[in-house]
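Entry for NAP complex. Fields follow.
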Amino acid sequence: MSHKLELIAAACENMGIGINGDLPWRLKTEMAFFTRMTTETNHTNKKNVVLMGRRTWECIPDKYRPLKDRINMVLTSKSLDYGNETITCKSISHAFDIITQMQNQIERVWVIGGSSVYKSAMESPYFGRLYLTRIKKKFECDTFFPPIPNDFVLIEDPTIPQGIQKENGIEFVYEVYERR
Ligand SMILES: NC(=O)c1ccc[n+]([C@@H]2O[C@H](COP(=O)([O-])OP(=O)(O)OC[C@H]3O[C@@H](n4cnc5c(N)ncnc54)[C@H](OP(=O)(O)O)[C@@H]3O)[C@@H](O)[C@H]2O)c1
């Protein structure tokens, strides 16, 4: 596969990312950041992939899926059909095969969750970057971001909002990691 994997996630202080098939918080600006990062391309004739697990797909409200202006790919072991616009993949290597076949149409490959998909992507030789929003509050969660490998280091990315962000009294910060 020619593309690097870019992960995007938001986690709270206890590293939670979800509860009851939903996000534990409502942060419109953080959601807008996710949409911008995963949608924007430099080439107008290319789109980004959003690669996700089946439960993450299911937690996207009907009216918002497939996520627009992106190539939606859903990992599932089941024979599910999410319509013409969404690609279902039986395994990560199956997803990589499809990405390779479509590589001329694809600009970036975003891994958007959940837990096991993030873990596989961080362990993959194709790992590129992790965009992690650190939400500076504890929330009750049942789904967690996997441990960040020791050889990941924080890097500067001037294209993303810098410093502490705030919405509805909740503080958060955008971090970017690469493998050392
Ligand atoms: N805060 C964030 O940034 C963020 C991001 C994403 C999700 N979330 C939250 O996280 C929760 C959902 O995440 P999750 O970890 O529970 O589930 P998930 O990873 O989205 O989905 C798990 C399912 O994906 C399929 N799958 C995963 N890896 C696969 C592989 N290698 N090959 C084939 N199929 C594979 C399997 O589906 P089958 O059972 O169909 O085989 C598996 O049961 C929700 O609460 C959501 O709101 C939060």
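NOTE: The chain has a mean pLDDT of 97.
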